[in-house]
Specification:
Blueprint: E1 2-5, E2 9-15, E3 28-36, E4 42-47, E5 52-55, E6 58-64, E7 72-81, E8 87-97, E9 107-112, E10 114-115, E11 118-119, E12 124-130, E13 136-141, E14 143-146, E15 149-154, E16 160-169, E17 173-181, H1 193-199, H2 210-228, E18 234-243, E19 246-247, E20 253-261, E21 274-277, E22 282-285, E23 291-301, H3 308-325, H4 351-357
Parallel strand pairs: 1-8
Antiparallel strand pairs: 2-6, 3-4, 3-7, 5-6, 7-8, 9-15, 10-11, 12-13, 12-16, 14-15, 16-17, 18-23, 19-22, 20-23, 21-22
Helix pairs in contact: 2-3, 3-4
C-alpha cells in the first residue's frame, strides 16, 4: 500500500512483463483511473493524459493530490492492451493521509428507517457528517443492507467528535447520532484488549463487549496518565510564554518537534539549539540565553515501554470500573479504607492502584 499526502503530488508507477518473471513488455493505450474505495467515486480518469513511459514496460503518472482531497483509500487502476491484443490491468491501493500525515480508520455509520414500527425502504436516504471543526462532508447516499437498514462507510478527515445526520424522504425523517474518531495508532491504550478480557475473565472468543471494553481501556489510560505522566505516545501542542526554560505539560517527552513564535515578528527557536530533558519535560537553550515568547510548542510525549506497576494499576482500575457499572461492587463512597472516593474522577480508584501509580503529576502553570 502506498501513502499519499493531501496537498502533495505523488508519482504512481505500473510495470508490465512479457510473462511472470520474464522481461519487461510494452502495452498500448495505457490509461489510469483513480477511484475512492468508500463510495466508488472516480476522482481521476480514465485518462491517458499525463501518463509517462520512461522505460520498456514502465508507465508513470503524477497525481497532484488536492489539499482538500478526502482522507481514505483509493484504488488506482491501470489499463492497456498487450501485443496479443488482450486487455491487461494493474492495480494499486493508495491511502491519502492528511497534511500532517495522519490517517483515520474507516467508520461504519448505520441507520434504521421505520414507519409504524415496521422497517421500510425510503425513496432516498443520505447522511451528512458534521466534523469537529464545524465543517460538513456529504451528503452521501446510504447503502441498503436489508429492509429499512442502511449503512455508509465513512473515512474521517480528522479526530474528534462528529455528528452523523441521516435524512430520508417518503417517509420523511431525520436522525442524528454522534460518534468519536481517533487517529490511527491512537486508539490503543495502556493495556491490550486481550489483557483486559483476561483480567475480566472473559473468553477471548466472546466479542460481545469488545467495543465497551475498548472504551474503558481508553478511560483507564487517561486516569493512569494523570498520576504517572504520559504513557501512550501522543503529539501535544501547547502555548508557552518563554523564559530561560519551558516546562512542558506532559512528560516524559520523547522528542521536540518545533518551537514556533506566536506573534508577528517573533523568532522561532531552532530545535537543534535547544536542550530537552526528556524525563522532566524541561526545554532550555544550549547557550543559556533567554527565549522571548510567546511560543507554540509541538512535541511527542509518552513511553517506549509501560512499567509493570503502571500496567498492573491499569488492570486493577479496569476491573473496578467494570464491576461497578454492573452493580457488582458494594459502597463506593469510602466507607472502607480500600476504596477512597476521589471526587475529581467521579468514581473511586482502588487504594492498591493508587499505591502502584504514586502521587499525581504536578500541574504546569
Amino acid at each position: 500500500m502506498t501513502i499519499a499526502v493531501a496537498g502533495q503530488p505523488i508519482t504512481l508507477l505500473a510495470q508490465w512483463y512479457d510473462y511472470a518473471g520474464g522481461p519487461p513488455a510494452d502495452v498500448a493505450g495505457v490509461t489510469i483511473t483513480i477511484r475512492r474505495v468508500s463510495d466508488s467515486a472516480v476522482v481521476v480518469g480514465p485518462t491517458s493524459a499525463g501518463v509517462g513511459h520512461p522505460a520498456t514496460g514502465v508507465y508513470t503518472y503524477t497525481w497532484p493530490v488536492p489539499a482538500a482531497q478526502p482522507i481514505g483509500d483509493y484504488l488506482v487502476v491501470w489499463s492497456g492492451t498487450d501485443p496479443q491484443s488482450d486487455a491487461v490491468t494493474a492495480t494499486e491501493l493508495v491511502t491519502v493521509a492528511g497534511s500532517d500525515g495522519v490517517t483515520y480508520p474507516l467508520t461504519r455509520l448505520t441507520t434504521t428507517v421505520s414507519s409504524g414500527g415496521t422497517p421500510v425502504d425510503p425513496a432516498t436516504v443520505t447522511v451528512t457528517v458534521l466534523q469537529p471543526d464545524g465543517t460538513t462532508l456529504g451528503p452521501f447516499t446510504g447503502v441498503r443492507d436489508s429492509a429499512g437498514t442502511y449503512h455508509y462507510d465513512y473515512t474521517p478527515a480528522m479526530a474528534g467528535r462528529h455528528i452523523a445526520r441521516w435524512v430520508t424522504t417518503t417517509p420523511s425523517g431525520m436522525d442524528e447520532e454522534p460518534f468519536e474518531v481517533f487517529a490511527t495508532w491512537s486508539e490503543a491504550g495502556i493495556i491490550s484488549l486481550a489483557e483486559a478480557k483476561a483480567q475480566l475473565n472473559i473468553a477471548s472468543t466472546d466479542t460481545t463487549d469488545d467495543e465497551e471494553i475498548s472504551g474503558f481501556i481508553r478511560s483507564v489510560t487517561a486516569i493512569c496518565e494523570r498520576y504517572a505522566g504520559a504513557i501512550v505516545r501522543r503529539t501535544h501542542v501547547e502555548k508557552h510564554r518563554g523564559g530561560y526554560g519551558i516546562a512542558l505539560a506532559w512528560a516524559p517527552v520523547l522528542s521536540l518537534t518545533s518551537v514556533a513564535a506566536v506573534e508577528t515578528g517573533g523568532v522561532d527557536q531552532e530545535v537543534a539549539d535547544l536542550d530537552l530533558d526528556g524525563p522532566t519535560g524541561i526545554v532550555q537553550r544550549k547557550d543559556g540565553r533567554y527565549m522571548r515568547g510567546p511560543f507554540r510548542v509541538s512535541y511527542v510525549a509518552g513511553r517506549t515501554e509501560v512499567p509493570p506497576d503502571i500496567r498492573q494499576a491499569a488492570l486493577i482500575i479496569l476491573q473496578h470500573v467494570w464491576d461497578t457499572q454492573r452493580g457488582q461492587m458494594g459502597t463506593v463512597r469510602g466507607r472502607s479504607s480500600e476504596e477512597p472516593w476521589d471526587p475529581r474522577k467521579g468514581f473511586s480508584i482502588p487504594r492498591r492502584a493508587l499505591e502502584l501509580l504514586g502521587d499525581p503529576m504536578p500541574l504546569v502553570g
